[in-house]
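Our consortium's second objective concerns turning raw sequence data into structural hypotheses that experimental partners can test. To show how far this objective has progressed, the report includes one record in full. It was chosen at random from the queue rather than selected for favorable results. The single chain below, 81 residues long, was entered without modification.
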Amino acid sequence: MVAATSSSGSGGFADPGPSEEAERLARYRLVIEEGAAKGAFVYKILDRETGEVVRQLPRDEVARIGDRSNYAAGAVIDTRA
């Protein structure tokens, strides 16, 4: 027989419960900003407590490439054999 142990001493499991997971996820918020190009958007997930950008789509590097005046779709890679 294997006994379940808990580090909290409350008799629960070590994994976070649904309420703890909800609290963790509530820490973040989604911000959608209009990009430089018409119809382009930047999606940012921010930490509510620190203001830090946790994730951004598209990434800064990709957004800067698309903002260039000489950029054309498909110009990032050369697919010719």
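The partners drew two points from this record. The two ends are 64 Å apart (CA to CA). The chain is about 20% helix and 25% strand. Both points have been shared with the crystallography group to help prioritize constructs.
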